[in-house]
Amino acid sequence: MDALPKRPANYVPLSPVGFLPRASAVYGDRTSVVYGRLRFTWTRTYERCRRLAASLLSLGVRKNDVVSVIAPNVPALYEMHFAVPMAAAVLNTINTRLDARSVAAILKHSQAGVLFVDYEYVRLARDALLIVADAGVPTPLLAVIDDIDMPTGVRLGELQYEELVSNGDPAAELPSLVDEWDAVALNYTSGTTSAPKGVVYSHRGAYLNTLGQLLSWGVGAEPVFLWTLPMFHCNGWTLTWGMAARGGVNVCIRQNRAADVYRAISDYGITHMCCAPVVFNILMDGEARQLAAPVHVLTGGAPPTAALLDRVERIGFRVTHSYGLTEATGPALACEWRHQWDLMPLPERSRLKARQGASVLSLADANVLDSNTMASVPRDGKSLGEIVLRGSSIMKGYLDNPAANEEAFKGGWFMTGDVGVVHSDGYIEIKDRSKDVIISGGENICSKEVEEVLLQHHAVADAAVVAMPHPHWGETPCAFLVAGNKAAVLCKDEVVAFCRKRMSRFMVPREVVLVDALPTNALGKVEKVKLRDAARNLVPSKL
Amino acid sequence: MDALPKRPANYVPLSPVGFLPRASAVYGDRTSVVYGRLRFTWTRTYERCRRLAASLLSLGVRKNDVVSVIAPNVPALYEMHFAVPMAAAVLNTINTRLDARSVAAILKHSQAGVLFVDYEYVRLARDALLIVADAGVPTPLLAVIDDIDMPTGVRLGELQYEELVSNGDPAAELPSLVDEWDAVALNYTSGTTSAPKGVVYSHRGAYLNTLGQLLSWGVGAEPVFLWTLPMFHCNGWTLTWGMAARGGVNVCIRQNRAADVYRAISDYGITHMCCAPVVFNILMDGEARQLAAPVHVLTGGAPPTAALLDRVERIGFRVTHSYGLTEATGPALACEWRHQWDLMPLPERSRLKARQGASVLSLADANVLDSNTMASVPRDGKSLGEIVLRGSSIMKGYLDNPAANEEAFKGGWFMTGDVGVVHSDGYIEIKDRSKDVIISGGENICSKEVEEVLLQHHAVADAAVVAMPHPHWGETPCAFLVAGNKAAVLCKDEVVAFCRKRMSRFMVPREVVLVDALPTNALGKVEKVKLRDAARNLVPSKL
């Protein structure tokens, strides 16, 4: 049995990039991407990606080089999910909501060779490149993604996306993947601190997670997918590659405005979309419309509340709740629905759906472990423990960050840092998220990063940042500060202005509370639970 | 990027066996297996499999040992798909329609250590073991699968399946899989000739094909699956493992009698089943009933005819046509349906559905190559070439058969031996099956094997066996014989009786034609195309 060798015919490295040539072969005449008046077929998308990959090689891009991109959900960002790894390079999608300082930190840490930027974000990119240059670090080549809505004749950079596509040789020989453990993507979970955490995905992990997502969510044939989830979030929860696997239609929109979303749903017959609950808030504000046909929505970041669930399901959305994190290549758990629950009253249905659920099929295991004994907690829905994951869709690790890897991988598990329970039916529910993370409008904010900035303020002696509930954004950061110098005046507005200059806008605390001292436990650790309770009682002041 | 190591948390060997512990964890209280008055949950199935694996280890079964089984679709056969590899052994399911000689050939070639046999097939097993012993080869241990319908108090063998399950220690430590390239199953495509072809599946290939099948066929949540397809055919096209992945219900029946099938469909609310077209013939004979809810059927072996498709779809079956072979771990192509075809008239729909279609997602590529140039044929629906496959769900190879491996793997492809075309939409259609294969009632018959037996007849000088169309079985073997000795009388009935003694019943030619000489081409090769044309004009004599 063991003597049978691996052969080119029966051992092909797993890669999500392979879904594209297959889509071109068997879904070739179907629509791949729609964006305004632009419309491509799968054959065309494959050809465009081959051309772009050839151009990247001509620019000198080599294996494991990082190619970064700052863009909203436009066709170029979609195509780069294939074209960049087709040149053996690693795709680094950057959150458009970051400030120049954070973008610069990512460019420096990743040593990106090329930076693609959507025309709307050219200033952000330029500012980031200045910071990189100031630090004496070589700057990446800048390539501007032109757009159908861009004024013609405008030239914003040396390299233009469409020129790279059209100048690329579609017949050029592209490097073939030899090792499925090779990197395909690099996604940063934080970038402003001294030790950025760049999450590296392997081709193998991305391939497996793509199949796992399609199965867990139950994406059938011929999906019409609306890109409300930013593709820069875990490569669109791997559904960038998933739509090629399914031969689906990718409907691209630049922004999640309610009118645009509803128009796309009715114009294109959207069947599927993903989003954080904040998008539901946008869709429900004022102009909620009854959908002509059900739209399946995979939501994550925070469990949908019963009230929200009731409202969105009433107008025709079919919500699946999932839980994931960048390190798990997106959704790791999904609340797989059971038919028998259909008949339950809404509050009960909502309670069941608010649970994070069962592991996706690409994971080998998900568990909740007692932090002291590292044994599984009882399946009683009460015993708390840390949610841990194991499987080939877990990241290769953090790039150049041994300390973070040491902390993340323990005892054969990936430690999520989130606290949860296991119910008697085996479904996992989060009870307390990682102390460090605040999720605002679907964006993860690392409280430690905000605290580090606050501590740079001359009048701040101590700082703790926790999540404060917010009706629109879900959560916003709330800062508790201890003044250090009796002489210096600690002014809330001044602190906020101080933060604005030093971090991405969505990270800035919406509420600042001055306290005499932070509550600490016997070991001297800040008791964030008490601060979160305090924050819960504060009314957001800037609604 | 390359420096990040594989860790136990992020590089878990792929194996379909892992779907069972997951099913026990997240679908634990759901029904796993139904058989008559027997009903198990996923938790129970997992426990039973752990117990059986522990018993196999106690019997001395070790890594790569072959554990064979002869059984219809009963729970034991289902459980063995997990329990055997959980003991690091290799599962060898044997076709119940084989004769003792063929079974013996498989047992000898595979060097099986244990043979499980359903109570109904004990005589077949005993006869086979006698042949093995006569050849001086060590015989496997015999374990009888007792059954709820078996007379109580009857003891048919030394070892009893249920005793092995109940005596096994569910807490025993089982070997853990280290290399996903390890063998999980061994399936014979032919066993009577001197060089049996035992197809070896890796854990990796079986895992990937399982996900691929679920996606290609679109098996959603909570399927209720009726086992009309024998599990011994490519491990039930990997749906044995697939039902665990989905937490589905496995409804087991011993035989595909129309009444049993219709009763199961209505009693259990069957949603999915697989079968060869011959099962449709059984279901349509006389007592066709209107189904209360649609039942999705994956069919393969032969394309459903327009007339059959019309009849079965009219009563509520939703047919997906697929193409596969043992070497590809079951279905390799599936005719993925497009919504736009729904509105076409039946003959056109049927023509489209009769095509074998697009590669499953676990394959890297499927193609049709010109046999001379080894280049892709044009996508014109006319140019003939050999269908070739490539991907990680292709078998590891044939066990101890270097010549067959040499022939099967060429130029980075697995050669199917089937001749087809590619249509302009990329869908593949078979035009001429491998010259050697006759498919009768879903069973593959190797014409060469039948010819070899015929040539052993003292009065036969030359023999060629081809497929003859048959209204019920699809095809049956038709033998063209040249008498060698003018003195000896070549009698048709005597030839048939001669065959009956020497091969499995379904392989015996239903028609024997005496000819003066076989038609040959310029190179002296028998022109089977001409013989098939001749056979097509013969009316089956034994309907």
Automatic annotation (TrEMBL), chains A, B:
Swiss-Prot/TrEMBL catalytic activity: (E)-4-coumarate + ATP + CoA = (E)-4-coumaroyl-CoA + AMP + diphosphate; (E)-4-coumarate + ATP + H(+) = (E)-4-coumaroyl-AMP + diphosphate; (E)-4-coumaroyl-AMP + CoA = (E)-4-coumaroyl-CoA + AMP + H(+)
Keyword Ligase: yes
Enzyme class: ligase
Pfam families: AMP-binding, AMP-binding_C
AMP-binding enzyme C-terminal domain location: 449-525
UniProt family annotation: Belongs to the ATP-dependent AMP-binding enzyme family.
Name of protein: 4-coumarate--CoA ligase
Taxonomic source organism: Hordeum vulgare subsp. vulgare (Domesticated barley)
Encoding gene, per UniProt annotation: LOC123431320
